[in-house]
Amino acid sequence: MLSYFHLETLLPRLFAFLIAMTLHDAAQAGTAWLLGDRTARDSKRLSLNPLAHIDALGLAMIVFGPYGWSKKLPLDVTQFRRRPKLSLTFVYLVGPLMNLLLVFFFWWLYFFAPTWIGRGVETIAVEEWRVYLQYCVIVNLMMGMIHLLPLYPLDGWFVVRGLVSDRNRPWFERNEYYGLLLVLILMITPIGQWALAHIYPLAAQIVMNLFSL
To answer: In 167-186, which positions are buried (b, 16+ CB within 10 angstroms) versus exposed (e)?
Structure first.
């Protein structure tokens, strides 16, 4: 398993995070637009330019590990054409699903891209790019899994909140603080690093098993 926290891994981690973050947010902005809410699109978030999504502090956190975040996506539930609550839930679900799809895409590139060049041409450049691809797998896998957690302000929190009845929504609003506290603990303490070190190999093995089917 690659190390996340050494300075020499900064460039591949940053490269992977920018791709994961940009496509995560662009997918959500595009889905919101298709469902009737133009707020994110009008805010220039329907873009494949990472600069449209970068949060300075979230980007700085990548220096210390694979954790980071983008700017909050502006959404207006009143703009959705049909079933606003369900539409908003779907928008939040699309982001993590995009990251999990990217896991399979980059894993496929990692294993099969060298065959395009030729098995006898294992250059240093190819091996360096495979490191970048491996980090794209790692970061997208962890971003997708983390955002599915039902903790505020992660996407999973809003997905679960959108699926419960209106009378239960005040409970979610009252407990947002505790969800944020747990997310911060996972990000800045060894607990999160321990969980990352144990969860990633298991998830990676599942992906490899799927490729071998």
So the answer is: eeeeebeeeeeebeebbeeb
